[in-house]
Amino acid sequence: xxxxxxxxxxxxxxxxxxxxxxxxxxxxxxxxxxxxxxxxxxxxxxxxxxxxxxxxxxxxxxxxxxxxxxxxxxxxxxxxxxxxxxxxxxxxxxxxxxxxxxxxxxxxxxxxxxxxxxxxxxxxxxxxxxxxxxxxxxxxxxxxxxxxxxxxxxxxxxxxxxxxxxxxxxxxxxxxxxxxxxxxxxxxxxxxxxxxxxxxxxxxxxxxxxxxxxxxxxxxxxxxxxxxxxxxxxxxxxxxxxxxxxxxxxxxxxxxxxxx
Length: 260
Description:
By secondary structure, the chain is an all-alpha fold. It has helices at 7-24, 34-38, 44-65, 72-92, 98-119, 133-150, 154-161, 168-185, 187-192, 201-224, 227-250. The longest helix is centred in the C-terminal third of the chain and has 24 residues, at 201-224. The relative contact order is 0.22.
């Protein structure tokens, strides 16, 4: 692996790759922790670039595992809008700061979870039927944009899809397919903006098997976890990650600060 990593760096990178795998295996939200973890040992955008090929490799395993479990109605709305979000991220990445985006999506995620926990109810919505096309387009776009910046599109996806109470395999499969397409769409923008300075073949060879193991572990964990507990865990992860985004980026907040 790249010589810039210390022993601690190896461990952190392996943990980040494993969380990517867990998210692709059906535990959406967990993968949002990967970039913040790896950012402890390298610059955030370099961390995002290093992890993108790991996401792509894990996506293939996830697509196989969930090839029969997904919500086509949600994907019809979310895929095009998420691709628009990726395009927006590509265009404005030189002027719209990552801390600003990260803090705003963190704020929305925290408010969403608090609303669920304090109100003690969510309006029931029929499975496989999105709440609103307008909401789907909005959150799909936000998901693509935040995914472009730091692979953190899961929070926006969950804010839109969680209230629908989809069956857990369908929920996980919809997330897996959506972000497999989004991640593939990020390759050209990342490459065109030279965001792969730290990539090495040895780094991918080291991290890819760990991510694949994480994908398998995530899929098996999903089978073993009851639906109610599953969605409670997703909400807890969403809240934790969202709060960490707020804390992490609050001191750096500047809406127009160029991304380093």
